[in-house]
């Protein structure tokens, strides 16, 4: 397993949010951004001439909230929404989620420790506060999703998500790579979850490198230990590309072991 390459102005950078830029928190709203991250993202966006995008399962509103005042290219809800700029965006067809929402209402009435996260194109069911309910969540959603045309169920970290079928981070990254300023660059995608595997496949098919954050099987060619390692790498890259002279004090090379 490789370390990620040094970032150059010829790269395009795609970054997952939860578990990659931000540490995993007990609840989705409890996420805290590390000091300096926004400044590093802004510097890298400029140094890459705009070729930096966030590729996430979160909603557009969540990312705009967490990364405010940055206005970065964004693919959210696992590719269901895609935004290059105010001039260019795309959205998956909407789903009739009635059967899913009814199943979730019934399940959460019995188990209030489960958390429903409504999104504009889908919905997530979080069981981080009740891991013993994973199987019950899976069974209820599998049955409900079968009643919704065009929907598919996806598993993430202590979460099941219902989203438009076919939408993926890989599809979103491929769409970015067809447009300036991303086209013609070597893509790097950093992600931590099984939901990021489609993104790793997309960048590697385009001659780039997927970077798996943390443990677990992955097709990514490179690996970093943790979100803290990713933030340190981004900080170092921002300093190098913007010509800052002193070395970053907090840069630590991540152990490069497979899970
Ligand atoms: O694609 P990502 O940016 O990694 O987003 C994936 C999901 O992340 C969020 O849930 C996860 O992070 C939470 C905060 O750390 C954690 O409490 C939860 O257990 C994780 O599943 C987010 O809430 C989802 O909408 C994203 O799809």
TrEMBL record:
Q: Any idea of its EC number?
A: 3.1.3.12
The prosthetic group or cofactor this protein requires is: Mg(2+)
Superkingdom as given in the UniProt entry: Bacteria
Per the record, the GO terms for biological process are:
trehalose biosynthetic process
EC class? hydrolase
Molecular functions (GO terms): metal ion binding; trehalose-phosphatase activity
**Entry-linked Pfam families:** Trehalose_PPase (PF02358)
**Function in brief:** Removes the phosphate from trehalose 6-phosphate to produce free trehalose.
**Protein family per UniProt:** Belongs to the trehalose phosphatase family.
User: Which protein, by its recorded name, is this?
Assistant: Trehalose 6-phosphate phosphatase
Q: Which organism is it from?
A: Melaminivora suipulveris
């Amino acid at each position: 397993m490789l370390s990620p390459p040094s970032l150059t102005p010829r790269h395009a950078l795609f970054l997952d949010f939860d578990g990659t830029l931000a540490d995993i928190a007990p609840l989705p709203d409890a996420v805290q951004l590390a000091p300096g991250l926004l400044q590093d993202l802004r510097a890298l966006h400029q140094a890459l001439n705009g070729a930096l995008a966030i590729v996430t399962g979160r909603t557009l509103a969540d990312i705009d909230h967490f990364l405010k005042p940055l206005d970065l290219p964004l693919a959210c809800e696992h590719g269901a929404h895609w935004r290059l700029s105010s001039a260019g965006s795309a959205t998956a067809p909407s789903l009739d989620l009635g059967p899913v929402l009814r199943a979730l209402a019934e399940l959460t009435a019995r188990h209030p420790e489960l958390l429903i996260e409504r999104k504009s194109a889908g919905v997530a069911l979080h069981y981080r506060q009740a891991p013993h309910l994973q199987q019950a969540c899976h069974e209820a959603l599998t049955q409900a999703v079968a009643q919704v045309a065009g929907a598919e169920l996806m598993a993430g970290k202590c979460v099941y998500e219902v989203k438009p079928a076919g939408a993926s981070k890989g599809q979103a990254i491929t769409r970015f790579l067809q447009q300036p300023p991303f086209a013609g660059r070597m893509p790097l995608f950093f992600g931590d979850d099984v939901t990021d595997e489609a993104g790793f496949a997309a960048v590697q098919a385009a001659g780039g490198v997927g970077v798996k954050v943390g443990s677990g099987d992955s097709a990514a060619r490179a690996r970093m230990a943790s979100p803290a390692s990713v933030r340190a790498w981004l900080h170092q890259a921002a300093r190098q590309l913007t010509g800052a002279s002193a070395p970053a004090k907090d840069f630590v090379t991540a152990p490069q072991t497979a899970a």
